[in-house]
Specification:
Blueprint (H helix, E strand, L loop, with lengths): L6 E7 L3 H13 L11 E6 L6 H7 L3 E4 L5 H10 L6 E4 L11 H9 L4 E5 L12 H18 L10 E4 H7 L8 H11 L4 E5 L15 H39 L2
Parallel strand pairs: 1-2, 1-4, 2-3, 5-7
Antiparallel strand pairs: 4-6, 5-6
Helix pairs in contact: 1-2, 5-8, 7-8
């Protein structure tokens, strides 16, 4: 628990046996200012690993769930479905490319009133080789499109992020592939949630990336992100109307 809030971590993972030990261990060792453990639970979604990712994570105390359908978004959705009651959900990749202690500013932002806190690699230090030129360009392009279309300042689509659980529920996340992160950010903008960017540093991941490490992964991620931006732009009115209807039904049920 952190500052009175229950914190759950969701880690989508595919063949990360060399890195998952570092990530899970550092998360469970993460301490607040008063020396208390910060993380209440860790859910690792094994997205079809053929190595010992699941075994290693389970031995360290994480809850491991399985999702055989490949996709970053569906792995995150599966992880969310399996978290216990919590106030904040922290998302982090299982490749040890993030510095776990930098989760604290993200959590602080949520406790202090933000609904979504994004770890911005652009605002932090990026070690040589941590992000490929294609990743940097794609991130810049997507961020620029969001700023242009929705007039909201965005510097990164980083996967290291924290969100208020009740806000996450309202977003009605749907994407099952690489559009997941941009879907969350744009929907949060449409809801006029308070969004905070916190600088986070990036290091070279352990093992080979399933996205930037292959041509098909890079192309797939690019298509997924850009198509999600287009989809949200042209369907935002319908999305907001549906959200309003759901909020009205929820308020009626409480009367």
């Amino acid at each position: 628990m952190y500052r009175g809030k229950r914190v759950a971590v969701v880690i989508p993972a595919l063949n990360e046996e060399l890195a998952i030990v570092q990530v899970v261990t550092h998360l469970f060792k993460l301490m607040g200012n008063e020396g208390q453990a910060v993380i209440d639970q860790i859910v690792v979604c094994d997205n079809g690993s053929t190595d010992n990712t699941a075994t290693m994570a389970s031995q360290l105390g994480a809850k491991v769930v399985y999702q055989g359908t490949p996709g970053y978004g569906i792995a995150c959705l599966t992880g969310i479905e399996n978290v216990a009651l919590c106030d904040i959900v922290l998302f982090i990749d299982g490749d040890d490319s993030c510095f776990v202690p930098q989760a604290l500013p993200l959590l602080d932002a949520i406790v202090d009133g933000a609904k979504l806190a994004i770890g911005s690699r652009t605002l932090g230090k990026i070690d040589k080789g941590a992000l490929t030129p294609i990743q940097r360009f794609g991130n810049w392009l997507a961020s620029t499109l969001i700023k242009t279309i929705w007039r909201y300042p965005v510097t990164d689509l980083g996967p290291f992020r924290a969100i208020d659980y009740s806000a996450l529920d309202k977003l009605d996340m749907q994407d099952k592939t690489f559009g997941w992160t941009v879907e969350m950010q744009v929907k949060a903008i449409l809801h006029k949630f308070k969004i905070v960017e916190c600088p986070v540093d990036s290091k070279v991941r352990i093992g080979e990336s399933k996205i930037s490490g292959t041509l098909s992964g890079t192309v797939g991620a690019g298509i997924g992100i850009l198509s999600m931006i287009a989809k949200l732009r042209f369907k935002q009115r319908t999305y907001l109307l549906n959200c309003a209807k759901n909020d009205f039904k929820a308020s009626e049920s409480q009367i």
